[in-house]
Hints:
Shape: elongated
Strand content: 5-15%
Strand order of the largest sheet: 1-2
Distance between the termini: 38 Å
Largest sheet: 2 strands, antiparallel
Amino acid sequence: QHYKMKFGQVLYAFVALLLCVVHAQLASDFMHKTTKDKKLWPKCGGAVQQNCDPCYKAQKNPLCDRMEIQCMKTFCLPLCLELTWECDVEASGCSGWDKCEEFEKEVNSERVKKALCAQFKAEGCSRVVDCCSDENQFLYKWVEGIVYDDYFPTPQLPIPVCMHDARNQTISQQMCDACKNTIKVTLSEMECSDNFPPWPTEHQQPQNMAIFSKNMVDGAKQIPKHKGMEDRCLSVNKKMKTKFEKMKKLFEEKACDCLGCCNAEPTCFYPLTYTMV
């Protein structure tokens, strides 16, 4: 029995180490493996093109390309996923189900709210406003990391109270109806000025414009239109606010599936496992 316990501990440690390696590799893929074909980049409602222009367009410079790619990535993380809008979920007024009290308690816990909002943010930032690529493995792992959080190997979704025998149609319907009439999602804007200092745009203007005009191109046109993080943040905020109503409706419709209350097989926007071929 002593040896069996030791073997189990070693096996658990090995699996944990393997998961860490996989997570590190996926994060590396997100940070370094980006296609140079700009047509395939997330557009973020035009914000990437408006804010990411580190060099004069006539120049061909590998450093400029890398700066532009890095700028594009900031619109996904940290801007859209973490620093431009907030999500909150509340369950109240549940009725018609004998486990309503337990249901509300679980949904209103901070860990479940956080897990649900991770799913909602990933969906909003990718398929709704296109600031993140929904084909990037990193986004799946970002969601997974929050859904598991400090509770690995037990995810926070689906919630225990919604685990049931799907063959019992009466209970299944009661649970689903109670959930759909209870869940409310609130989306709100975050203040960009709280996270980023102003970008000193006046420093981009050279004192003597004549020295930039010798190649027969007006010097003023050669000043990069590259924007700082506050301007990028404001661009994302502007795009997100126009989608709040659409996203609120979408998230409230999907929440009960994510919680496991309305499907025999719980499904959410981003699955908690990702198959790599």
